[in-house]
Design brief:
single chain; mainly alpha; 7 helices; 0% strand; rod-shaped
Length: 184
């Protein structure tokens, strides 16, 4: 038994030394981790996304640039409705983009990337809104043109009936004139 004790101790020390060489499996706040979180957040349903948003909103305090602040910005970026969609990601990213303390480059670079995404999404949303307005205007214009065409078609029908009546009357007058000429 006494021979097993030193062997057990050596085994424990070897295992502990091996643990030090393993990669960390938890979130690091690096680009890969944040990109993975972006994909994860984009796939969330509305209720889960709202819960995640509330959790991160409670965790992010002060004006420090942290990976959780970037995750909160990601949640506001991918949200289409709910409380997260009403938050302004550029405000959330403020400390990472121009705060008084200089954040680590990995966080700052990801913040600039997210800011670029925000700007592009806003531009696309603005363009989509302009297109919707234009489509609505064109649909209204098309509807008015169809109505005007219908009115013109009805008026054309009335004028054709009137023309036919006038032609019949003209033919009748010509017949009367011929019969008068034949009597004379």
């Amino acid at each position: 038994m006494s021979g097993l004790r030193p062997a057990g101790t050596v085994l424990v020390l070897i295992l502990l030394a091996g643990c030090g060489t393993l990669n960390r499996s938890g979130p690091t706040g690096g680009a890969d981790d944040l990109a993975s979180y972006y994909r994860y957040a984009a796939a969330l349903d509305k209720a889960t996304l709202t819960g995640e948003y509330r959790n991160f909103r409670n965790w992010v305090t002060g004006s420090r640039c942290t990976p959780d602040r970037l995750r909160l910005a990601i949640l506001t970026l991918v949200a289409e409705s709910g409380p997260a969609s009403k938050a302004d990601p550029s405000v959330v990213l403020g400390p990472c983009l121009g705060g008084s303390e200089r954040p680590p480059p990995r966080l700052r670079n990801m913040a600039f990337l997210l800011e670029d995404q925000i700007r592009k999404r806003r531009d696309l949303a603005k363009h989509a809104h302009e297109l919707r307005s234009r489509v609505n205007h064109l649909e209204g214009s098309l509807s008015e043109q169809r109505k005007a065409r219908q009115e013109l078609t009805e008026k054309k029908g009335e004028l054709e009936k009137r023309l036919k009546t006038l032609q019949e009357q003209l033919e009748a007058l010509k017949d009367i004139e011929r019969s008068i000429q034949q009597r004379d």
